[in-house]
Write a structure and sequence with these properties.
- With 223 residues, the chain is an all-beta fold.
- Among the domains are: 2-57; 125-154; 158-189.
- It has no helices and 28 strands.
- It has strands spanning 2-4, 7-8, 14-16, 22-24, 33-37, 40-43, 47-49, 55-57, 66-70, 73-76, 80-84, 87-90, 99-103, 106-109, 113-117, 120-123, 132-136, 139-142, 146-148, 154-156, 165-169, 172-175, 179-181, 187-189, 198-202, 205-208, 212-214, 220-222.
- The strands form 14 sheets. It has a two-stranded antiparallel sheet.
- Strand 17 (132-136) and strand 18 (139-142) form a beta hairpin.
- The chain is rod-shaped and about 160 Å long.
- The model has no long low-confidence stretch (mean pLDDT 91).
């Protein structure tokens, strides 16, 4: 109100500016907004009032795992980073190969993988891949000297085939009972009589040469 020539006095809850205008007073001051009436703020663009009547910035993404610090501007919590605008994703220093980062330094493995060391997702092979290593889910890669069987097992390889025995290690046969290993890694039958004038064709079984016949003691006698 005018209290004298060119002299104004502001109403209660108003104050003079440097240009002698009376403007409303808001207590506390209107941060991020404009005081339009005593203790009444109008928020600036990109801000809206919270439950306490304060003007807060608005981020349409909601800033999960972070906080809105300015209109459409998120600041991520510790352990998170922005890989897309205003989206705070967790950070795993290992990179979570064969999995995904679900929380700071926490990996969740893809199907067919499991954690055998912190945040390292290794493939799982139900056979265990003896004599080899698991390179992908249910996929073994055999060591040298071994080959993969139909059941995802790495079996030793013997080039001789180990007839009358079994292959127990690369190029190593274990002979069946009644057979012995020759220098060529072949299981030959054993005949205690040594099959003179014939040959040993099975354990304790001789096959006589022409002109000889087998007698009861597994010996080849001339005919």
């Amino acid at each position: 109100m005018c209290i004298g020539p060119n002299m104004c006095k502001c109403n209660i809850n108003y104050e003079k500016t440097s240009t002698d205008d009376c403007v409303p007073v808001c207590k506390p001051a209107c941060k991020n907004g404009e005081c339009i009436a005593p203790n009444k703020c109008r928020c600036s663009q990109g801000y809206c009032k919270n439950a306490h009547g304060e003007c807060e910035p608005v981020c349409s993404s909601g800033c999960p795992n972070g906080r809105c610090v300015a209109p459409e501007t998120c600041e991520c919590n510790e352990g998170y980073s922005q890989n897309a605008p205003n989206i705070c994703d967790p950070v795993c220093s290992s990179g979570c190969p064969n999995g995904r980062c679900v929380a700071p330094e926490t990996c969740e493995c893809n199907e067919g993988y499991s954690q055998n060391a912190p945040n390292i997702c290794d493939p799982v092979c139900s056979s265990g891949c003896p004599n080899g290593r698991c390179v992908a889910p249910e996929t073994c890669h055999c060591n040298k000297g071994y080959s993969l069987s139909a059941t995802n097992i790495c079996d030793p390889v013997c080039s001789s085939g180990c007839l009358n025995g079994r292959c127990v290690a690369p190029e190593t046969c274990d002979c069946n009972k009644g057979y012995s290993l020759s220098a060529l890694n072949i299981c030959d039958p054993v005949c205690s009589s040594r099959c003179l004038n014939g040959r040993c064709v099975a354990p304790e079984t001789c096959d006589c040469n022409k002109g000889f016949s087998l007698i009861a003691t597994n010996m080849c006698d001339p005919i």
